[in-house]
Amino acid sequence: MVRRSRIISLFIITISCLFVVILSEPVLAQTSLGAKSMAMGQTGAALPFDSWSVFNNPALLSPDELNISFYGFRYAGISEISDMAAAGNFRSKIGVFGVGIHRYGFNLFNENQFRLVYKNRFDHIHFGISAGYFHILQGGEYGSAGALGIDAGIALQVTSSFWIGVRTKNINQPKYGDTDEELPREFSGGLSFNPTERSQLVAEVTKDVMFPASFRTGLEVELFKGFTTRAGVTTNPSTYSFGFGYDHSSWSINFAIQQHNPLGLSPALDLSIRL
User: Fold this and answer.
1) Which residues contact 202 (CB under 8 A, 6 or more apart)?
2) What CATH number has the domain spanning 2-274?
3) Which stretch of DSSP H or E encloses residue 62?
4) Is the dihedral of CA 171, 175, 176, 182 positive or negative?
5) What is the pLDDT of residues 137-166, one digit of tens each?
6) How many CA atoms lie within 13 A of 143 on its CB side?
7) Tens-place pLDDT, residues 198-248
8) CA distance 54 to 131
């Protein structure tokens, strides 16, 4: 019990330091990737071992020996504004490594992201860091620019069914090329709790100092072995989402629909393969 109290105290101190650093400068909100995250209100800071932790929280990378995932999301059904991503992670003797590729937009404007992640743990504390290179390409004579952003995450497994997680994005305050345009920066903190063996409840707050804080929450229920349904809500912006997924021993597939006011419905789909 004494050791567990020391671990929790260290975790709280670390979170407090990260919170002070992030809120000392303006941040800009980003969304989470993955159909499960989308269906559960764009949560991701405290979803343990999710296939898309490469982007959502590097501290929660899956410990699977090898995991490869693919994702697509279409904003309000418009093909020109779509997200496409792929991610993978593998376990080694010195920790877990992850890679990710993300593309947003179309030929006249697109943003591409390439990400490398490392995650490890100390007892019940999981921690991770990632480096992402962002490249924006604009049509016409506007050209292109790139920047390198650093993300960090930390998570505490309080019990087998209760997790606390935080993530920070672009903490090095990068800018595109020689411009004054900074990459979006974000701080999120959340909780994940399994009331029963077949259900999961998540809640988190994403803070953007330029706008009101966004509250996000979601619920997952396993109806029968391997098949789950999900629902979630967010504030600022106001969205509602639902979805379902099927998890096999060697693969999983997830689908989500998000209702954004006033943009409308946006579908998401992902597939993960475990080797």
Assistant:
1) 40, 41, 43, 46, 47, 190, 191, 192, 193, 217, 218, 219
2) 2.40.160.60
3) none
4) positive
5) 887 677 788 999 999 999 999 999 999 999
6) 6
7) 999 999 999 876 778 999 999 999 999 999 999 999 998 899 999 999 999
8) 10
